[in-house]
Specification:
With about 190 residues, the protein is mainly beta. About 15% of the residues lie in helices and about 45% in strands. The chain has one domain: Beta Barrel (AOC barrel-like). β4 and β5 form a beta hairpin.
Amino acid sequence: MAGIQSKNALSFIILSIFVVILMVDAKSHSFGRVLNPVKMGLKKEKLSHFRVYWHDIVGGPNPTAIQVARAPTTNSSATGFGAVVMIDDPLTEGPELSSKLVGRSQGLYAAASINDVGLIMNMNFVFMVGKYNGSTISIMGRNAVFSKVREMSIVGGSGLFRFARGYVQARTHKFDLKSGDATVEYNIYVFHY
């Protein structure tokens, strides 16, 4: 009987030490905690679709896309590999630049492919109208500009698009070879709360 009591006592001591270690370890990571999404105002997730037209204006007196870096002149790539362009492009409701302005696309794109015209896009669609005013959708991905349809990821957002995820499809609506200006239709499929 004494042997069983000593085994139980030893088991109790080991279990107590383990619980104390867990409690101390849990307290040492006080920088993070689990939150209740409902208490943060997050209700049921929904899927929304938006269609906007992105106007990249590189020519004329008021460009919205400015090249800020280029590869050294020793670069012989016909694709512009290495060029970096900052943008603050209008987003409109319809394909004409005179259509209702619904937001801006702010960010950058860069020529990231040596062999074809493939851009890395990193931009925020900043909405300026209605209940979405001040909310943003963050988009990042590869844009093979001469493909009929390009798909890029929605990697986040702010305001009504907090915790956003999804994708966009880009289709060139109009491209002016002379000026370099482009109008691209963006269909946005976004999960948000």
